[in-house]
Amino acid sequence: AKTQQRAGHFYFTRNMGVEIRERVRMMHALRTAFSKHELFLAYQPQIDLATRRAVGAEALLRWRAADGRFVPPDRFIPIAEYSGLIIDIGEWVLRTACAELVRLRAAGHHEFTMSINVSQVQFRHPQFLQVLRNALADTGAPPRHVELEITESMAMEEPDTFIEMLAQVKETGVHIAIDDFGTGFSSLSHLQRLRLDRLKIDRAFVTEISGASRGSSIAEMVIQLGRNLGLSVVAEGVEDELQARVLQQLGCPLAQGFLFARPMAAGDLYGWLASQPAQ
Ligand code: C2E
Ligand code: CA
Ligand code: CA
Ligand code: CA
C-alpha cells in the first residue's frame, strides 16, 4: 500500500484502508478465539541426531478459526503483538507448555525439555519476569527443562537493557535459545556477552543443504560458533535424510523438522513418543 503525504497529513490509499480493516477484523477474531479457548499448542519433537531419539519439543501456537481453517502464526502473531494481546496469549502459552512438560515427566519422559517461543513484546513487558516465575511455580515445571526461544533480532537491539533482562531471566534457571540464528547481524563479541545456552540454525540455511551442494556454509559456521562458545545447536526445518546426515557430520547435535515429525497436538505426542524405538 502506498501513502501520499501532503501538508503534514497522510492520505491513505484505498488498499491501505482495506489492510487496516482486515487487521482490525483479525484482532477482534483473535481476541474472541483466545477468550473461547480456541487457541492450542502443537508440539514438534526435537531429535538427538546421534541416537535419533526425541529429547524435547517446541511448543507452537495454533489457531483454528471459526470457519475451520487454520490461521498461520506468522499472520496472527504480528497482530497479537501490535494489539498487545500477545501479553495474555504469551502467558497462556508459557503456562500451557510448562504444564505439558510436567505431564510428560509424569509419563516417564524425565529428560525432556520444552522449548517455548517468546515474543519480544512479551519479553520486554515489565511483568514478564513475574509471569515466568509464576508459570514455573504454579505448574511445578523444572526450570532447567524449560527453554525460551527468542529471536536473534531481539537479542541485538538495545544490547544493555537486553543483557540485564536476560541475566534476571536466567536466574530463574530456564535456558535461552536464539531462534532463527544466522538471519540477523550478531557480532561475536556481543554473543559472548549474552549468557545463552543454544543457537537454532534458521531453516533457510538447512534447506540449502541438498544433493547438489553439501550446502550451507552458514549452517557449518553456526555449528562451529556454537562449539566455540560452548553452546548447544539445533537445526530446524530438516526435511530429508541427507540434511540430517550432513548436519550430523558437521557436528550438529540436535535437529527438528518434518523428516522426524510435524508439530502435533499434545494428545498425539504421547503416542508418537511411545512408538519410537526403545533406548
Ligand atoms: P519458528 O519459531 O521459527 O518455528 C518454526 C516453524 O517452522 C514452525 O512454523 C514449524 O511448524 C515450521 N517447521 C518445522 N519443521 C519444519 C520443516 O521441516 N519444514 C518446514 N517447511 N517448516 C517446518 P509455525 O508453527 O507456522 O510457526 C511460525 C512462527 O510463528 C514461528 O517460527 C514463531 O516465530 C511463531 N510462533 C509460533 N508459536 C509461537 C508462540 O507460541 N509464541 C510466539 N511469540 N511466536 C510463535
Ligand atoms: Ca521457534
Ligand atoms: Ca526458527
Ligand atoms: Ca521463524
From TrEMBL:
EAL domain location: 23-277
Coiled coil regions in record: none
Source organism per UniProt: Pseudoduganella albidiflava
Keyword list, A-Z: Phosphoprotein
Domain of life: Bacteria
Record protein name field: EAL domain-containing protein
Record bears the keyword Phosphoprotein: yes
